[in-house]
Amino acid sequence: VEYDGSIAIVTITRFDNDTGTMVQGFVKDFAKDGIKKVILDLRGNGGGYVSAAQDLLSLWLDNQKIATQKSLHFGDTTTATAGGKAILKDIPTVVLVNGTTASASEIVAGALQDYGKAKLVGEKTYGKGVVQSLYDLSGGSTLKVTIADWYTPNGRSINGEGITPDIVVERTYEDINNMRDPQLDAAKDL
C-alpha cells in the first residue's frame, strides 16, 4: 500500500491464500487515516485463488454475489462475499486494469464494476474466466480440463471477453520507459 495524500494505492500482483486478509489488515485504519479514495491496482495480476478475491471483495460488498460459475456438467454455482466486513463500501474506488489482468483479478474488477462500487481505468483485461481441474495420468502426465466458465454478477462472460474499463487509457512502452503512468494519473484525477 502506498499513499498519495488522502489516496491509498493498493497494488495486488497475485491472489495468494492470504491476500484478502492482508489487505483487510491494511485498510482497517483508512477512515482514521483520512483516506478519501482507494486506487486498486490489478495491472499485471494474473489471478490466483478465487477465495482470496472473495475476501478482498468483502471490503466493498456485503454478502453479495461476486460471480457465477457455469458448467454444462455440474450446473451453476454462485460465489458471494462474507457479510459485515464492507468497510470500503462508501469510499470512492478506482480499479486499474490492463491486458495482463486475468482470472481472479477479472472477477474482482467485474464485480466492483457491476455493482457500481468502482470505476475501471486502463485497458481491456485478458479474458481468462475458466475453472480448470487437473487429472493425473499414468506415466506422470497431468491433464488440465476446463470444467466451467466464470460470469460477473450481471451475467457478463469473462472468458474470451475480458472486462472493458469505464475509462480507456493506454500505457505505452514509451510511457513505461520514461516512468510515466497515465493510467494512474487518470485514476487520481477521478
Q: Report the radius of gyration as a whole number of Å.
A: 17 Å
Which whole number gives the mean pLDDT?
95
Low-confidence stretches: none
Number of helices: 5
Strand order of the largest sheet: 1-2-3-6-7-10
In terms of structural class, how would the helical and strand content be classed? alpha/beta
Distance between the termini: 19 Å
- The beta-strand count equals 10
The SSE string, one letter per element, is EEHEHEEEHEEEEHH
Main beta-sheet strand count, sense and barrel state: 6 strands, mixed
- Shape from CA axes? globular
What proportion of the residues is helical, as a percent range? 10-25%
Strand content: 25-35%
Description:
- The protein has 190 residues and is α/β, with parallel strands linked by helices.
- It has helices spanning 19-27, 50-57, 104-114, 173-177, 182-189; strands at residues 2-4, 7-11, 37-41, 65-71, 75-80, 93-97, 119-122, 130-136, 142-151, 167-168.
- A 6-stranded mixed sheet has the order 1-2-3-6-7-10.
- α1 (19-27) packs parallel to α2 (50-57) and α2 (50-57) runs parallel beside α3.
